[in-house]
Amino acid sequence: MTLDGQVPSGSIGDKWDRHKFEMKLVNPANKRKFTVIVVGTGLAGASAAASLGELGYQVLNFCIQDSPRRAHSIAAQGGINAAKNYQNDGDSIYRLFYDTVKGGDYRSREANVYRLAQLSVNIIDQCVAQGVPFAREYGGLLDNRSFGGAQVSRTFYARGQTGQQLLLGAYQSLMRQVHQRTVRLFTRREMLDLVLVDGKTRGIVCRNLMTGAIERHAADAVILATGGYGTLYYLSTNAVNSNVTASWRAHKRGALFANPCFTQIHPTCIPVTGEHQSKLTLMSESLRNDGRVWVPKKQGDKRPPEQIPEDERDYYLERKYPSFGNLVPRDVASRNAKQVCDDGRGVGDSGLAVYLDFRDAIQRLGVGTIEEKYGNLFHMYKKITDEDAYRVPMRIYPAIHYTMGGLWVDYNLMSNVPGLHVLGEANFSDHGANRLGASALMQGLADGYFVIPYTIGHYLAGAMLPKVTMDHDAFKESSDRVQRHINRLLSVKGARGVREIHRELGRIMWDHVGMSRSEQSLRRALSEIPKLRDEFWHNVSVPGSPDNLNQSLEYAGRVADYLEFAELLTLDALERRESCGGHFREESQTPDGEALRDDANYTYVAAWEFTGVGSAPIVHKEPLNFEEVHPTQRSYK
Amino acid sequence: MRLHLKIWRQAGPDAAGRLVDYVADRISPDMSFLEMLDVVNEALIRNGEDAIAFDSDCREGICGMCSLVVNGVPHGPDRGTTVCQLHMRRFKDGDTITVEPWRAKAFPVMKDLVVDRSAFDRIIAAGGYISVNVGGAPDGNAIPVPKEIADVAMDSAACIGCGACVAACKNASAHLFMSAKISQLALLPQGRAERYRRVLSMIDQADAEGFGSCSNEGECEAVCPKEIPISNIARMTREYVKALWAAGR
Q1: Residues of A involved in catalysis
Q2: Res. A147: pLDDT tops 90
Q3: Mutating which of B9, B55, B58, B84 best tests the A interface, going by the most A Cβ atoms within 10 A?
Q4: What is the pLDDT of residues A520-551, one digit of tens each?
């Protein structure tokens, strides 16, 4: 199979404009004759469903929650980037593009990233028009801040709730279309299979989570916007119901899974307190704008932070990276936190934490300013830890946060399976091996508001799509397969709960396929994962029945998929014998311990083809060409 | 910690429900309330019993999915806190804790502690938006918005749509929920064009859904995890009266 990214010709600045002109259009009167399924209602899903509804397509929109407004995009705190240059500090579309390609450690597709930077400016305008209450200056204009390693102030924000406000903007546009009957909403539905007819995507099979009914839905194209797979690691900053199931089931029907080993570990999370923990809470990295990260210089120094004098503190990010200091990218900040903790200088009871200290910022700016900027984050920290971060430094530790890998898509955001489009975190395309802060919201909304409305029309106008009804054999085969899988889960009747097995899977992944990976650790994970999968299918206990709300059954299905997917992620990590972005291979580092990329051998996208559970997948490589931003070793010194 | 729990179990929408006693043993004060329920459920599952159904997702107080009445109070005893952010250190060893679902005619119980809140979505669908299609938006800085106005709009926009306000209200009124959205959009210049249409449609929809009216008790504000003030309800009422005049109703 040859992987064609369908990147348009022409200069980088002209590609999207030219492509928009060259793509086929669907006549306005014909749009209502096409049905499009959108799975997911986060930023990408809700914005896509709303925009396609506005254009006049018949949209069926699915989510697992009780309301589209609950999708996990809502939890994004920090902000959204846009190349508006409102601050007159030298920002431009080209600079945002450049920063994103470099930040992604040269493993993303240049043309996609340039388009993302171009569209960023339209997103802000659209969201303001929807009534998103972005932070403002006294003069009434939009405020910006610098975020996550950027040297310009291009991040727009709504207190610490930017994701919430952007999602509610998209949700409201979506509900307007629901009211106008262009979008039909299906809440509490979980997609469990993709249906192909004559090689084209023609629908989905899902389970109604309230009644247990297996439902068939036919369409002319399907859009997956089902987010990332961070909960593979059990503990992550993701919502507890986030999962890989929709993507994985599509993968099993032929969609290639690209770069699954590119996982992002976020440096500023509240440390783990015990076995009972169900998720980790992120403290927005905007905190690193004013907080200073440090640990004691001495190993095993257990004095309370206020008793450690200034000259016995190691502000290690400021020391090692003087030009970026506390604002180094996420992967660098995370790895350094791990290093100082491995070195025996971690703080807190577990020794698996570093300080994030606001003392100096409070002295410089006053408590009032800090409270205005971060009040809700300090409040959240107090709720969870029972500590007052205005008085004692926060304790933070890295945790799995975002996954750059995802289903392979071309420039039109279509997978290798005709008609199956993938948006937002669920695809792989824009963030390379490492996502910069405030870029996820940008990508989700760019895909949904401004890319898919054009590219889906191009597909629909050009494809031969004879009418398919839900009694077609393909739908029957698919719903039978789904039903068999559910019956199988319920019939094991073993002794171990799903959560216990998921926790064990998470531990394998965190220990061996986490922040630092080696040939040895990855091979170990590859031997342990199939054993655990076997244990699951022989000894899992899934109580209850299939014909009503059964959260144990839902959870079992998701963990069963993770037990297959974990192997693919680990294999991808094993095959990529270089360090890049969030993927750090111990065998590939510079003498001073920084990540070392291997451009000669690994400047490609690894897109994996499913060949069966436990059977070796086939890798297809899409070479990456850097015509604009020439790869250099990242340096934040 | 060892706790005695009385938890509402109900097999389905049409089944009768009742409070069932459980013991939660070896509970750490660092656990969240939902993690405590996870522990209870793990023990039930090991015994092959049906787990207690309850909603949760982000577990960091922003998605609005969790919805438990703890000892008679929606989201439990801490102010400004969703139940997923309530920690067991708030309770004492040996305490008895009653856990029930939201109770309101417009929020029917689906199973155990899970309720159907789609009525809120239908209220938003009736008018809780600014009618702009993608594509034609002017520059984000074209219309300055005074910081004071933007800040108050953000205070209102912080609503997470959990429904605790309804669960706390003796009238099961959705006024705090609706007024938060109506305030946000009426305060911002972008939302002014359809402000009257919006308030009329949303209130009509809430009436149709079976939510009650407001009698100024303030229970909603007291339990709101985002501490949305009831001054929003006053603003909504003013909007409503003006809209009625404008519409000649």
Answers
A1: 330
A2: no
A3: B58
A4: 999 999 999 999 999 999 999 999 999 999 99
Helix/strand/coil for A262: coil
**CATH architecture assigned to A473-615:** Up-down Bundle (1.20)
Cα separation, A319 vs A330, whole angstroms: 17
| pLDDT single digits (tens) B85-120 | 999 999 999 999 999 999 999 999 999 999 999 999
Pairwise CB contact (< 8 Å): A159 & B39: no
CATH 3.90.700.10 fits A265-400, yes or no: yes
The Cα–Cα gap between A311 and A93 comes to 43
Question: Which residues 6+ apart lie within 8 Å of A484 measured at CB?
Answer: none
The top-level CATH class assigned to A15-24+34-81+92-128+162-260+402-462 is alpha beta
Shortest alpha-carbon distance between residue A187 and chain B (Å):
9
Instruction: Give A186-253 as a DSSP string.
Output: E-SEEEEEEEEETTEEEEEEEEETTT--EEEEE-SEEEE-----GGGGSSSSS-TT--SHHHHHHHHT
**Candidates A284, A549, A550, partner chain B, best to mutate (most B CBs within 10 A):** A549
DSSP assignment letter at B207: H
> What are the structural domain ranges in chain A?
15-24+34-81+92-128+162-260+402-462, 265-400, 473-615
| Out of A106-120, A565-579, A589-603, least confident range | A589-603
Of the candidates B62, B116, B125, the beta carbon closest to that of A175 is on B125
- The CATH number assigned to the domain holding B14 equals 3.10.20.30
Residue A427 pLDDT more than 80?
A: yes
Please count the CA atoms within 13 angstroms of the CA of A263 that sit on its side-chain side.
29
B-chain residues near A139 (CB < 8 A)? 144
Asked whether the beta carbons of residue A450 and residue B134 sit closer than 8 angstroms, the reply is: yes
Question: Is B53's CB within 8 Å of A134's CB?
Answer: no
Q: Which positions in chain B touch A86 (Cβ < 8 Å)?
A: 141
Q: Based on the domain organization, do B30 and B104 belong to the same domain?
A: yes
Distance CA A66, CA B115 (A): 9
In the predicted model, is pLDDT for residue A584 greater than 80? yes
Question: How is A151-196 classified by DSSP, letter by letter?
Answer: SS--EE-STT-HHHHHHHHHHHHHHHHHHTTSEEEE-SEEEEEEEE
Q: Which residues in chain A are contacts of B78 at CB distance < 8 A?
A: 383
Which of A51, A125, A551 minimises the CB distance to B137?
A125
User: Is A69 in contact with B144 (Cβ distance < 8 A)?
Assistant: no
Q: Could you tell me how many CB contacts below 8 A there are between chain A and chain B? A: 222
Asked whether the beta carbons of A541 and A492 are under 8 A apart, the reply is: yes
Q: Quickly state the pLDDT bin for B80 (edges 50, 70, 90).
A: very high
- Rg (C-alpha) for chain B, rounded Å, is 20
Is pLDDT at A635 greater than 80 in this prediction? no
- pLDDT for A397 equals 93
* Chain A residues lying within 8 Å of B137, measured CB to CB: 122, 125-126, 128-129
List the single residue in B59, B80, B141 with the smallest CB-CB distance to A279. Answer: B59
CA A125 and chain centroid, separation: 24
Q: Is the pLDDT of residue A456 over 90?
A: yes
pLDDT per position as a tens digit, A148-190: 768 899 999 998 899 999 999 999 999 999 999 999 999 999 9
| Three-class SS state of A542 | coil
Percent of chain A with pLDDT strictly greater than 90: 90
Rounded CA-CA distance B244/B249 in Å is 5
Determine the 3-state secondary structure of A480 from DSSP.
helix
Strand partners, A400: A265
Task: Return mean pLDDT, chain B.
Answer: 97
Chosen from B124, B198, B204 to mutate, greatest number of chain A CBs within 10 A: B124
pLDDT of A323 > 90? The answer is: no
